Amino acid sequence: MPVYEKGPVQIHYQEAGSGFPLLVIPGGGLNGTIANLSEGCPFNPLDVLSDEFRCITLDQRNAKGGQSAGPLEVDRPWDSYTDDHLGLMDYLGIDKFLVLGFCIGGPFSWNLIKRAPDRVLAAVLAQPSGFRPELPNNFYNNNMKGWGPALCERRSDVTMETVAAFLKSMYTDRADFVFTVTRDFVRNCRTPVLILPDDVPGHPYAVAMEAAMLAPNAQVSLYPWKDTERRLTVALRHIRMFLGANRPV
Amino acid sequence: MPSYEKGPVSIHYEEAGSGFPLLVIPGGGLNATIGYLSNRVPFNPMEELSDEYRCITMDLRNADGGQSSGPVEVDRPWDAYTDDQLGLMDHLGIDKFLVLGFCIGGPFIWNMLKRAPGRVIAAVPAQPSGFRPELPDLFYQNNMKGWAQALCARRRDVTMEMCGAFLKKMYGANPDFVFSVTRDFVRGCKTPVLVMPDDTPPHPYAVAEESALLAPNAQMTFFPWKEDKARVPLAVRHLRSFLRANTPA
To answer: Closest residue of A to B222, CA-based?
Structure first.
């Protein structure tokens, strides 16, 4: 698996297919890895979309089970990941691209659109993460258990105090909506987005629908879409059409 | 309003916009008229889509409140209406077209796909009618009251007995699924279809979804999409993408 390096950051990535570039962000929260696309996501875009697109995916920086690493940037948690996403595209010589992100890929996609509105031509947010008022500490608690300890174990430069500060900055201090951008940003965002809602604690349906209804060029898929193979097939047709419609001719 | 005549059939129709032809079938069951598009359907395609398409719509033959008329063809109820729809396209010199139909437009569309698979490029059944086992006589009863009586009052050649036989053939001969075609037909139908489901007594969600899951090139919008007016534009964006994706270059 090839590696992109920038200073202290090392990002393992993978490519499949050819055509217009499609950045695929795996699900799995901060433990989002390439392997999750085969194991934890409803479908693997590298298998099903590589016939039409140049699919590029990566292990998230510091994900458990992945091979990417980098500093824990407490003051800019979301932006540090977005640096990796945009940096990888730069490294591959890609200017404009499409994005498809699962789970945490929802907030990442919005941040990518904010940071690089002219480069992201369209985005697909599948089972996107969002804030759920009745579970305000969901992401903090989950990651303090499922991500922080394993990271501290393999990295002597990272402590649980740093992890806690990072997660507080990432989730607690931005405890609303999609974490990375405001409703006003979404309301004014002209980038076409296709949202495939979910409704588990980490992926609130209400936030997915609110984002879809606010964004002026949004579409939303059927729901539920991933509980059976046949519904998934129908949703994939929508994704394929949406991506096809938004790539340059 | 112009009219198309063929033998004893007279069909009043209306056009709006220019571009690739889009046949719009109004809702309202057997009383479907152009007037329904302005005040009884979730959006009016003649207004919404005439910026990109040559939209053509018509009063259904013998609809109450409309200006189209023709024989009550007891032996071939669905085909009689399909004759009018295909005949109007012939009259206008249109070979291939897109079709969007509300309510009864669902069964009409499937019949049209059966009769003219080479002419219908893609189809959108919106809030499509279908059979609901728990209300097996719904369409017969509704139309005996809401359609047949008014028709007999204005047409001396039509009796309630004829209407009863017509409705029995139309809805009672194949009391299942979408009335006009079988599941096997839908399973083998390659024409791209976008289903926009509803869930009222005559528009069962289960049938709409089943047809979307069976048809090999079907998509489906989210649901519910029309009760809250703020959701309608989201569904219309999916519709517009679908039509564009299937409009010949």
So the answer is: A222
